Structure formats: structure tokens, C-alpha cells
Amino acid sequence: MSQDARPSIDDLAARLERERQDADKKYNDALTELDRVLTKDMPTLPPMPTETGIHPAATRALIELTHRQYTERIRFQSRLAQFLQKITAFVETKDRATGAAELKSELAQVRAKTLEIVRELQAIRERSNDSARSHEPARPHEPARSIEKSSDYVGFEDQFRGTRDDIRNRLTDYLPLFTGATNVVDVGCGRGELLELFKEAGISAKGVDLNPAMAAACQERGLDATAGDAIAFLERQPDASLGGLISIQVVEHLEPKVLTRFLATAFAKLRPGAPLVLETINAACWIAFFETYLRDLTHSRALHPDTLKFLVQSAGFQNADIRFRSAVRDEDRLPRLPAQADPRLQDIANVVNAHADRLNDRLFSSMDYAVVARR
Fold first, then answer.
1. Contact predicate 318/307, CB 8 Å
2. Is 178 exposed, middle or buried (0-12, 13-18, 19+ CB in 10 A)?
3. Which of 90, 303, 332, 358 is most deeply packed, by most CB within 10 A?
4. DSSP class per residue in 264-298
5. 204 Cβ neighbours under 8 A, 6+ residues apart
6. H or E stretch at 248
7. pTM for the predicted model, two decimal places
8. Which contiguous run of DSSP H or E holds residue 91?
9. How far is CA 24 from CA 34, 84, 165, in A?
């Protein structure tokens, strides 16, 4: 089988999930049939006559009942054997599904490491060739790359950001903002989920990502992606040439001075009326700050929604709006007390619920938000 014909990690994971679902269905069907056999109404013996002696009709009924019970027992044993066969496959696929996510993450990291090694070898070869041509000693090896550029960060994203399908589903509702747009730029395109959505929607778009492994993964899927610094990439674009710019979970990685320069450059390169979308972690949400923002070592500055909106407006953008996304799950929010029969207890419950509502609104609201504006 050629390298191009090999199934991707996502294809293998999808196949495992299909097999699990199929085994799950067979298991449920077998369990339903087993339950039907167990709960089936068994024939009952007609009442025996009160007079002395053996009643012929009762004897026949007893024989028929015994035969039917024996037949049902054989049928039950057959169904039980089928059920055990189905549950064996079900448990086996469950075990595979349990390890599929971990296996997928490990394979993604291995693949990213391999790509990085290949690029390093190519860079060493090019430096050696340049040195041989110029008769100069080879330059020392470049310093270690930052974590944002390393293949380890690809594995980090795969483990904590979510699957490609999860991200695609999250980003789909951004597409209407770019209807009819051309030459859209996805800054920090990552694994290319949004670029794929743009391509499927007929929106011409290109991406840029600081991590070469991310850009290479996009290029392998036929997406227009470049590895490099976002501001340098934007500065190479003609003024008023871009039909839109979107950046998902990127601005929190930028120092304030870099962020203001990024916004000023974006304003210069976007066409009048073009949309700007900046999504980031909602630092005003307690659970988002402590569980999402602090977990990533590459984050530079948490941005309050009002702060980012102000910076966007200061850069010259119009109609800036904050859109909160990814509401905190109900099970992670503070619960409210139910209604109380005792009026005195109800008064206490009202106070507790009022405090829970205030804390939920402030600390457990939305995990992310986006500032949406127009050039």
C-alpha cells in the first residue's frame, strides 16, 4: 500500500468508533431479546379437579406445559449463548475505544516529531551546502525553538484542545460572517479545521501559523497554509487586500505591544467593511481562567472581554461586539436549592440561590468569547 493510501489517524479512530457502535447495537439487540425471553408469560397449569383420581385433561395439560417449559428453556439457553457472544465483541470494542484517544494523541506526537526531524535535517543539509560553497566554517546550530514552534505543542493541542471534529463543530457558526468574502486570512490556523470549513463553503482563505508542524499538517491536506510570524505575514500583504481576518485562541499568546501592532497591521490590510473575528479565553470566567488559560505555558496575557473590545476599537475598527461562547456545563455550575415547604427554609433558600446566581454569572459563565468587528 502506498503512503498516500494509508488510512490517517482520524480514519483509524473513526473505524474503531464505527465498530464500537456496531457492537453496541448488537449487544443491545441481544440484551433486548434475552429480556424478552426472560419476561415471556409462561403457560400455567389449569386448576386441578377437587375430586379424587387423575383427571385426563389435567394430565395432558401437565405434559404440554412441561414440554413447553423445556422448549422455552432450550430457547433461553440459545439466546443466552448469543448474548454472551455479542457481549464479548462489545467489551473488546469498548477496550479499543478506551485506548483509541490516547493512541491517537501519541501517534500525532510521533508524526509531528518526525516532521520536525525531517525539517531539521533539511536545514542542516542546506547550511552545510552553503558553507561548502562559501568555504566558511559551518554556523553553530540554531538555538532551541520556543515551545510554540515545537512538535510537543502539537501533541499538547491534540490532547487538550479537542478532536478535529470537535473544533470544526465549534467553528461552523463563524462561517456566515464571511459569506461572499475572498482572500480571508486565518491567523493561527493550527491543524486547519477552519481552513477546511472555508474551503467546503467556497470561501477562498489562507492560513499562517507560528508552528511549522501545524502548517505542514495543513499543507498535507491540500490547504493553503504558511509557517511564520503572523505580523510579518500580514505586512507582506498589499494594503486593503484582505476580505476578512479571523484568529482563534491566538491573541492571549501576544504581549500587549505585539497585540496592538497586530491590530494596526490587520486594520491596514483589510478592505473597508471586511470582518475581523478574534476569539480568546474568557478571563472573566473563573473556571476558564484556572483550567484553560493557566494550563498552557505559551499564554502571555489574559484579556478581559472589555479590554480586547477597547483595543479593537482603538485600532480603528467599527461595530465591535462581544459574543460569548462555550457556556460552562450545568454540572460545573453552582446548584440552586429546590423549593421548600417551610416558609422559613424557603427564605434561606432564596438567599442561597441569589448568591449562587451571582457567582454563576461571574465565575461560571462562558469559557470563551469573540470580539467581532468591521474594518
1. no
2. buried
3. 303
4. HHHHHHBPTT-EEEEEEE-TTSHHHIIIIITT-TT
5. 182, 183, 184, 198, 243
6. strand 244-248
7. 0.58
8. helix 56-134
9. 15, 13, 22
Residues 6 or more apart whose Cβ sits within 8 Å of residue 297? 147
State the CATH architecture for 162-374: 3-Layer(aba) Sandwich (3.40)
The three cell numbers of residue 139 are 554556523
Question: Containing H/E element for 318?
Answer: strand 318-327
pLDDT tens for each residue of 312-350 = 999 999 999 999 988 888 887 888 989 988 888 889 889
The set of cell numbers assigned to 307 is 479590554
What count of other Cβ atoms lies within 10 Å of the Cβ of residue 306? 11
Residues 218-277: pLDDT tens digits?
A: 999 999 999 999 999 999 999 999 999 999 999 999 999 999 999 999 999 999 999 999
Query: 212: buried, middle or exposed (CB in 10 Å: 19+, 13-18, 0-12)?
Result: buried
Per-residue exposure over 50-80, b if at least 16 CB sit within 10 Å of its own CB, e if not: eeeeeeeeeeebeeeeeeeeeeeeeeeeebe
Domain ranges of the chain: 9-108, 162-374
Q: Residue 94 has what pLDDT?
A: 56
